[in-house]
Amino acid sequence: MVSEYVVATLRACALVIALACTCSCATTVDDETLVMLAPPSRSTTDAEITAAIQDLISTYPVCIRVPLFRTVDARPVDLDPAKLNLGEEDAELAFDVMVRFGYMTRTPRPDLGSQFFEFKRTPLVTDSAVVEKGGFCMPARRKLERITNVDRLEKDADSRYWIVDFVHTQDPESAWARNPDLLQLAGGEHGFVPSSPLNGRVLLQRVWLRDKHPLKGAPESGELWAPNYDYIHNRWNDIHWGHVNLRPWGSN
């Protein structure tokens, strides 16, 4: 799922200024500056850190691969178990979950066979629940239990972020807690949605976006986010989520 906060392009000079700057320095921005980054200032409160982590783990996308979803809005699909390929064993369950949640409609096609159906996206498909060609994504809706450590990296003048360690668990009001079928689909490598508490880690920075904050006061006015810059392709990827680890330690 692609966040609405993804920034596709960035002037090189703005990037250099943002990454080299601390919150105490004087930052120059102009009408073409799209995004700026800086380490959080020492005056950042525990309450703001807690709120940033809770927002992050609540909206973090859990994406489940369902190859047969490529048929949605395209053509009828045969859900006969005997005809499903390797990796498609849970396709019928995945389609059923999406229909029950209201993200798809299902129309039987008995003219093609007893297990043929047409699936269509509904207007409910938004950034919080996106049906894609290869599967679907839904927000993790994790609940923050406590923050265990905040490494402010104050000894390193060149530090660009803070490292925050925390413990998170399942929100009993979330769709994951109320729908065992959904949780079953997210097993295996999607190990950050079980009911048991898990350790998490995130790298936080101050992020200033032109469409959200005025030029005056940047970057101090920015929000605490976990931005991720792809240096190979020279672009931002899912800037709101970035460097996040919601899996238990030692897992792949």
Q: How is the secondary structure organized here?
A:
Layout: H1 12-20, E1 35-38, H2 46-59, E2 61-65, E3 77-78, H3 91-101, E4 104-108, E5 116-121, E6 130-132, E7 135-139, E8 142-151, E9 162-170, H4 175-178, H5 180-185, E10 198-209, E11 223-225, E12 229-230, E13 235-236, E14 244-245
* Unreliably modeled segments: 1-29
Number of individual domains: 2
Number of helices: 5
Q: Structural class given helices, strands, pairing?
A: alpha+beta
The proportion of strand residues reads: 25-35%
Description:
This protein is α+β, with helices and mostly antiparallel strands. The chain folds into 2 domains: 12-60 and 140-245, no CATH class; 64-137, no CATH class. The protein has 5 helices and 14 strands. The strands form 4 sheets. Strands 1, 8, 9, 10, 11 and 14 form a 6-stranded antiparallel beta sheet that branches. The longest helix is centred in the N-terminal third of the chain and has 14 residues, at 46-59. It is elongated and about 70 Å long. It starts with 11 loop residues before the first helix and ends in a 7-residue tail after the last strand.
